[in-house]
Amino acid sequence: MSTDIGTVVETAPPPPAPRAGPPTAPTPRTPTARARVAGWLLGALSKTVAIAVLLGVWEVAPRLDLVDRTFLPPFSEVLDAWFGLLENGQLAANTEASLSRSLTGFALAVVVGVPLGLLIGWYRPVARLLGPLLELFRNTAALALLPVFVLILGIGETSKISIVLYACVWPILLNTISAVRSVDPTLLRLARSLDLPAPRLFQKVILPASVPAVFTGIRLAGAVSILVLVAAEMVGAKAGLGYLINASQYNFAIPQMYAGIVTISVIGVAFNQLLVALERRFTAWRAPLGG
Questions:
Q1: How far from the centroid of its chain's Cα atoms is residue 63's Cα?
Q2: Long-range Cβ contacts of 204-212 (<8 Å, 24+ apart)
Q3: Global pTM?
Q4: Are 160 and 101 a contacting pair, CB within 8 Å?
Q5: Which segments of the chain does DSSP mark as H helices, in order?
Q6: N or C end of the chain: smaller count of CB under 10 Å?
Q7: Which of the residue ranges 129-143, 161-175, 220-234 has the most confident prediction, judged by mean pLDDT?
Q8: 242 touches 230 (CB < 8 A)
């Protein structure tokens, strides 16, 4: 019996199907420059729309006789008065006088309030010693003591800087004390388990954990420094935004009065944004790694 010689083709078995593994998370896309610009513009628009509506109502309401334009002139007239004060130098001179007093008192309050707050918050004996005095003076309004400051220090720059210092030191001091006392106990126990000495514990644990609350007090003090100073300048001063507002109201220059008020508001917002930027700079370590 003969067999035909042929080609025998052997087929290899198919490869095993791959096992299904756990689903992988999609790789996050890096936002493009156009998306970042669009997001920034949307955020800026959402923040300014309320202010734009307010200014629009301010402009329209006096013109439609909804309010007496003698006492609330349209915003365009206030803007003209603002540029007039800027051109004749009154706005710059009064703003410079107010800022020098406010920033000096604010800086002194930071220099005094932060170290004292850290000391009182960290050392219980110091807290027990100074506690009654803090409770006494913290409940005494700064403006209520303005006549005392004027009688003792006169009507010059010293009394105005001192009243700003007194008003600003309390939010800084109290927030700093609270920050030190509210540090996470787990962090303290962990640091003590590593046998860290007290100075290193204070430097590596207490200070970093206290920074956000301390900056909250500093931001509150920044707003207080301007408000208290303006009130003090209305009582006895020959220069400053408070003096400008009071003198304009006395002379019935109502647009100039509102121009001074708008200037104070703009300075307050700018000062707060500067403090927010500093806070982000000093607390950048708190940001998440992927943020």
A1: 36
A2: 206/118, 206/122, 206/180, 207/118, 208/285, 209/179, 209/183, 209/184, 210/118, 210/121, 210/176, 210/179, 210/180, 210/183, 211/179, 211/279, 211/282, 211/283, 212/179, 212/279, 212/283, 212/286
A3: 0.75
A4: yes
A5: 33-63, 75-87, 90-122, 124-138, 146-153, 157-181, 185-193, 198-201, 207-235, 241-250, 254-282
A6: N
A7: 161-175
A8: yes
